[in-house]
Fold:
Amino acid sequence: MDDLYRELIIDRYKNPHHRGVLEPNDISFEDDNPLCGDHIRIDLRLDEAGRVSEASFDGHGCAISQASADLLVESVLGKTLDEVRLLSKEDILDMLGIELGPVRLKCALLSLKVLKAGAYGLGEASDDLVE
Amino acid sequence: MPMANNVNGFDVARIRADFPVLARQIRPGVPLVYLDSTATSQKPRAVIETMDEFYRKSNANIHRGIHTLAEEATAGYEGARRRVAQFINAPSARQVIFTRNTTESINLVAFTWGRANLNAGDIVILTEMEHHSNLVPWQMLAEERGLRLEFIPVREDGLLDMDAYRELLELEPCLVSFTHMSNVLGTINPAREMIALAHQAGALALVDGAQSVPHFPVDVQELDADFLAFSAHKMCGPSGIGVLYGRKELLEDMPPFLGGGDMIKRVYLRSFAPNEIPHKFEAGTPAIAEAVGLGAAIDYLESVGMQAIAQHEHEIVAYALERLEEIPGVRVFGPSAEHKGGVASFTLQGVHPHDISQILDSFGVAIRAGHHCAMPLHEKFGLPATARASFYLYNTREEIDRLVEAIYQVKEIFG
Structure:
């Protein structure tokens, strides 16, 4: 079995801990990966101190994109938006614990792109957010 | 003949050994003297072998595939984009768009930025020394949109008339689009100054770098260029791939160019949402192996050093001008060597350039004859055509001597 499909990734893909939609929410953003049609939506609720109290993702796509989204929303619980904005490509790769080529990297980073576009309050997500 | 020619530590013999075609004999005993690099450069072994290896080992379509070859091909293609960005000091690789060539890069700007921003009566400034690639797209757009085109005159000495340029800027143009180096006169234009003046007048500046990027260091941030266009094939890379660099906010605001795969984010039956830059401008399967080859060409050029290449060409062209001007009946066009890149366009009294080129070929000397895609410039100087010898990192003083000997043979034949 390829490292790409280590147990953590398959497990999070099959049994995500944070899949769903939060309505109402404080922050909600969604975007696609045009290369393969993966889609991710991320919703956040913030507490009075401005920290993420609840987070969820929804969408469809490959195991890499969905597992990274699940791990990512889990990792932002308790963080401020400023802290969320600082998350990087390396954080995602550390969470996944795998190495990825340029095509699959796009799958892994879609959720980060969506999350950061939401955290910055942007109208549109940009690859700049995850470079 | 001995090719060893070591000017200031620049080892031309070693460089020549990197270019397989330079070992060619045009006929038995008649070695090639290639003096047509302004049209296209020759390719070093490193570029040929890199592309060969790509096709032998890693060929696949990019961006969509998940298999090993697709990952390798994507990494090669996107790696080449980063290599180009470093080479011209672009702030981000996303500002590097792969096109077919300089011509397509300029057309892209004309038909996306131009259509979105230029309207009847708006002014675009060009120069009288432009290649057709930086004239015709603007003429087409001018026809479509009712634009007004103005031209910076070329002086008798081959330099642009900067006073006239300053006056033209008072017309409040939207864009100044000019060649960094003339492919006929060899004139190196003061791009940084011209761009600064354009910006002061509120205009954007597009630099046609087809002849500059291959021959001397070009830094888009130092120039403060809004757009820079160039081709791989003139810089030791393959044909079929070129580059458009653009300022990020401009590229992001521009509508797409060609429609199709890879340039979209989402597609519906009746509409689409465009992808991000640079992919927004790269519809369909691009020139993948050629991009990889361009990356190898940049590696090669940098291993020699762009400053060293510029210095070598400067010495070669200075020697060529000195030798050509001593031939009775020869007239060389363009500025003196200090303002010039590696180009020597000339006429020989009583002999049409096509005949010069034909006879030179029998001596293995490859030059170009014609209007060099700059008909208006030739008209300005009252010439139907010129002969043009042009130089690159692999040319030697001995080759200039061969050119001069061959021109004397032409004179002999035409009496």
Summary: The interface with chain B takes residues 32, 34-36, 101-104, 126-128, 131 of chain A (CB under 8 Å). The helical segments of chain A are 7-14, 63-75, 81-85, 89-96, 102-120.
